[in-house]
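Standup notes
- HV: blocked on the assembly model, inputs below
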Amino acid sequence: AQRVTQPEKLLSVFKGAPVELKCNYSYSGSPELFWYVQYSRQRLQLLLRHISRESIKGFTADLNKGETSFHLKKPFAQEEDSAMYYCALLTGANNLFFGTGTRLTVIP
Amino acid sequence: GAVVSQHPSRVICKSGTSVKIECRSLDFQATTMFWYRQFPKQSLMLMATSNEGSKATYEQGVEKDKFLINHASLTLSTLTVTSAHPEDSSFYICSARDPRASNEQFFGPGTRLTVL
């Protein structure tokens, strides 16, 4: 069975500080991982996926198979980054399995 | 990106009644849609996968007779909560897979169901 763990429910950082949202996974197959973001009063939307290896809104995430992690990082947090962030794993059935989410608050 | 709508956004009903929630892909055809349930301050839990023209695939623990899913067209899936009870009160979210976008899932805004 798969598992996605986001250990921090809440995370607060000051504007301009680096931010890292942790995600660890457990999956027997070849993992495909995603980060989704939900801004206040908006719908869930894809932020980035590991296979793209791209930076979106300054965020990056590297899949570390040895540590089974897919942490989301940004060197300088902005106020507009305040949101709910979900790590998700694509299962063999082509379904998304979500972590419990981390609420990021960037303090001005 | 692709747009997915849900209707209604909020619904309040009496215990024992049935409620239908619609999920539409507005600018693309979706052979596969998904229904999630989200409890307060918790994650999204996949309830079922809705396949156009065939029966839905339900996740373990989800009662298919309780949560009826119909995907009669390539742009519409419906979730009917039958004989609703207060414990069915939740936030229901649908998503649709867009084949034009590497099968990325696009999410609807969600429907808040309150059963009195």
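- HV (later): unblocked. Chain A has a mean pLDDT of 93. Chain A touches chain B at residues 9, 42-46, 86, 93-101 (CB under 8 Å).
- Next: hand off to the docking folks.
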